[in-house]
């Protein structure tokens, strides 16, 4: 609702609101409050907060001339409203206001200040010159719902080991499936944190969530995997992503973390050495971290393989590159079943290209096997049956 209060206001965006909620709910513990100037300096020097690794200071420094004037003149103990997209979302009691260096802040988060980087550029535009700290209130109910969902799933099966995975599933492909199954072999419960970006995504969050649920409900043991959203704000960026993922997973009640395809931003590919270096320097984060193999489809082995154990060279391997697979789907083509399960492909392509055929019923009955009954079929059904025909081998 719009604010009718008389307090001065700070205008923040959804990314800042998400980070504030995670912080207040204890999901970023040991950090549970906005840092003051002294704490920021200590974290920058040591990379540690209260005995645990933390990659950079957690601060609130909203951009904009109005925010700058408010913060420049704010008094200790003053109550400021927090406004997001024209609605009142909380309030903060000012404890301290201090100057920051936005360029240095970019370097802390991303490891670079190169504004040609899309993420760096977007974050720079939303950074102000002043940071504010103090007690604040925001809505924590979405986070509490996730916490309760995870706890109930654990209680229902008596889970002793819960593994967290963070993925975009954009789109969900066979290598993702293998990673999930591999993780499930050594764990009672898998919690998939499905990334929910603020900027436009090729596949909407709801569609990616639906594909994961389809896979879980039909191809995994019942009650062994759940999907929860994670608003993918600017704090989950660069090499720090692994550290923040480990902290979030631990504070949501997971005791294991499987690192896989999301950590490099391009499918299953990442720099193992860089990630391993980050993990070796984690202090005080009590969670077991495992690193997945890189998967490919080998045309000699005729199956999905780990490139570490396949004896054939890269020229025999078909990579699971999310961008390329998605490009096929955006063009209305069904990826080969060795890349994406046909039920997933059918769901995605029929959603991306609705009402594509002039006379679907006629097309369906002209080229598909039928059981003698007139039935209604969706475009998703059509794509499923079409893929079955693609997989027929007697005349190929």
Could you explain how this protein is built, in words?
This protein has 396 residues and is of the alpha/beta class. The chain is built from 14 helices and 17 strands. The strands form five sheets. It has a five-stranded parallel β-sheet with strand order 12-11-10-13-14, with helices on both faces. It has a four-stranded mixed β-sheet with strand order 1-5-6-9. The chain has three domains: 8-138, Sulfate adenylyltransferase (Roll); 141-294, HUPs (Rossmann fold), CATH 3.40.50; 340-390, no CATH class. The relative contact order is 0.11. The chain has helices at residues 14-24, 37-46, 65-72, 102-110, 118-125, 141-157, 174-185, 205-219, 240-251, 272-280, 322-330, 342-352, 360-367, 379-390, and strands at 8-12, 48-49, 52-53, 60-62, 79-84, 87-93, 96-99, 127-133, 136-138, 162-167, 189-196, 225-231, 256-259, 288-291, 295-298, 303-306, 317-319.
Please give a handful of descriptors for the protein shown.
Sulfate adenylyltransferase, 4-stranded mixed β-sheet, about 400 residues, 14 helices
Strand content: 15-25%
Supply the CATH architecture of the largest domain.
Answer: 3-Layer(aba) Sandwich
Overall number of structural domains: 3
What shape does the CA trace take? globular
Radius of gyration: 24 Å
Number of beta-strand segments? 17
**Chain-averaged pLDDT:** 89
Tally the helices: what do you get?
Answer: 14
